[in-house]
Amino acid sequence: MxxxxxxxxxxxxxxxxxxxxxxxxxxxxxxxNHLTISYWNDNFDYEKLVGEKMxxxxxxFVTASFWVNYAVTTKxxxxxxxxxxxxxxxxxxxYRTDLLxxxxxxxxxxxxxxxxxxxxxxxxxxxxxxxxxxxxxxxxSHLPVNLPxxxxxxxxxxxxxxxxxxxxxxxxxxxAPFVSVFNxxxxxxxxxxxxxMIEVEEWKFFRLITIYPxxxxxxxxxxxxxxxxxxxxxxxxxxxxKIHFNLGKNLGxxxxxxxxxxxxxxxxxxxxxxxxxxxESGWDFLMFP
Length: 289
Fold this sequence. Notes:
It is built from four helices and 14 strands.
C-alpha cells in the first residue's frame, strides 16, 4: 500500500512539477540533466542520542517532507522542475493536512546576481500523508496518528521570485544575501524571506565522500494564511547549520540543526536522505514555503 502511494506521488511530481532553483555557490549549469529525490524529517528519536545536552523544541507540526527536482540544462539556461510534499499534523487542534506544490522555474542574470522566476500549482488536502506517516509509525513501532483531514481541499496557482547576490566568493568560502517571495492565494500559504547564507568549500575523503558545510540566517514573514495553516507557520527569525555528505555519485545524506524553522521558540535536529545528482548544499527546499 505505502509503496504504491509513494510511487504514485513521485510519478505525479516528476511528470508535472516545477520549482525554484537552489541558492548557493554551486549554481553553475551542469552539462547534463539530473533527477534528485530528497526526504527530510525532524521528528525522529534523536532525543535518545543527545539527552539533556541539547534543548530541542516541541512538535512544529511539519511531520515529514519530500522534494523531487528534475533539472534540465539547455544551451541558454537551467530549468528546474520541483515538487514538494509536506505532511502536516496539528495534534493540538486535532487535524491534519498535506501541502503539495509543483512549480517550474528558470534563472536570469540580474545586477551581478541571479534572479529566479517560477510558477506552478499548489494544493492542500489529503494526498496520502496519513498513510505515509502511519506506515512509518508501524515500521518504527510507534502508535498511529489518526487525525482527520478537517478542511476542504484547496487548489491555487502559485508563483515565486528569488534573488541571490554573491558578495563573497573566496577559495574556501562563499557568502550571499537573498530574498524570496512565494504566493499561493487560494491555498493560503504566502511568505517573504530575506537573509543570508554561507557555504564552505567542499571537503573530499577517499574519492567517494564529499562534505558540504553551510549555514543560513533569515527572517520569514508569513501573510494571508488560511485557518488551516495559520497555526502551522509563524513569522520570525530562523537560523541553522547543515552538513551534507555525498556518498559516491548518487547517494547523499545530511544532518541539520535549525531554530524557528516554521514556528518560534523551536529548535530541532533533522536528517535528510537524498538520491540523485542535484544541488548538494542548497537550503531552498528546507526553507519552503
